[in-house]
From TrEMBL:
Pfam families noted in UniProt: Thg1, Thg1C
Similarity comment: family membership: Belongs to the tRNA(His) guanylyltransferase family.
Catalytic reaction equation(s): a 5'-end ribonucleotide-tRNA(His) + GTP + ATP + H2O = a 5'-end phospho-guanosine-ribonucleotide-tRNA(His) + AMP + 2 diphosphate + H(+)
Protein name: tRNA(His) guanylyltransferase
Species in which this protein is naturally found: Aphis craccivora
PANTHER family per the UniProt record, alphabetical: TRNA(HIS) GUANYLYLTRANSFERASE-RELATED (PTHR12729)
Length: 294
């Protein structure tokens, strides 16, 4: 470096500079060539489905209520909402029992649509949130050990494929919950053993399980909470929250039918990939999660 007038002139040895850049790459960098390109196919709905791993043991260790523990379901919902807060391209999520499905917009470019990145990021966010919010829902129970979830990605090329997938999961919710409600009703109310309850329910259809519940356990299945019978669908809404007049982005848990057309007509922006429209019918006393980075 030398002075010209009042200015400093910096001389760079271009030969040495180019060598230093080349040396920044080590001889070990060739291992990157072993990475496999795993991009999700374009123009397909990306569904990330999480399932509790060894959750029967987990629920037993933490003494969850049977047949349903409402606090556990609400914890799952809060953890799923945290995923939707973090990843704005998740347009909808559906959960029941120990599973959750996250629907990413078919035009998403999240992580350049790399399957492994999307799946691991959503799974880790959900799992970490489950532990983080545990004391919010289980104040009287210590978390004995961390839960774990397995994950998979499935691509659905058409809107109807996506709707059929979600219909399958909600139908599964009804089938499983009806059986569990009848099974545990016979045990907790009638005092039967596990084997005796299984024998009575073996081979029965839905109408017969409903009749067993009503006659043997004095339980009308239709009066069970919708969160148990229908699961939870998380949707995004744009609302005005008092006292501020500014628009806020919230995530709302709904326990409604998603098999018929009504839900999809009301939330048509999900399939049409449109921006959220202001929801003028929103009531502040509804349950919702506020997206802080809206």
């Amino acid at each position: 470096m030398r002075m010209i007038g009042m200015h400093r002139v910096l001389h760079i040895n271009t030969k040495e500079f180019s060598i230093s850049i080349a040396m920044a790459k080590s001889k070990y960098e060739y291992v990157r060539t072993f990475e496999v390109e795993d991009k999700c196919l374009q123009n397909c709905w990306i569904v990330v489905r999480l399932d509790g791993r060894s959750f029967h043991r987990f629920t037993s260790a933490h003494k969850f209520e049977k047949p349903n523990d409402k606090r556990a379901l609400e914890l799952m919902n809060r953890s799923a909402a945290a995923v939707m807060e973090e990843f704005r391209d998740v347009s909808l999520a559906y959960g029941q029992s120990d599973e959750y499905s996250f629907i990413l917009r078919k035009n998403t470019d999240l992580y350049n649509r790399r399957q492994s990145k999307i799946m691991s990021a959503i799974n880790s966010t959900f799992s970490a949130s489950y532990v983080y919010y545990w004391n919010t829902y289980f104040e009287d129970k210590k978390l004995l050990y961390p839960p774990s979830f397995d994950a998979r990605i499935v691509l659905y090329p058409s809107d109807q494929n996506l709707r059929d997938y979600l219909s399958w999961r909600q139908a599964d919710t009804h089938i499983n919950n009806l059986y569990n409600t009848a099974f545990w009703g016979l045990i907790l109310i009638k005092g039967l053993s596990n084997n005796e309850a299984e024998k009575i329910l073996s081979g029965t259809v839905s109408s017969e399980k409903n009749e067993i519940l009503f006659k043997e356990c004095e339980t009308n299945y239709n009066n069970e909470l919708p969160i148990y019978r229908k699961g939870t669908v998380l949707v995004r809404k744009l609302v005005n929250l008092p006292p501020s007049k500014s628009k806020k982005h919230v995530i709302c848990p709904l326990h409604v039918d998603i098999i018929g057309d009504s839900f999809w007509e009301e939330y048509d922006e999900i399939l049409s990939l449109k921006d959220l429209k202001l929801n003028k019918d929103f009531k502040p006393d509804e349950t919702f999660y506020l997206v802080k980075r809206s």
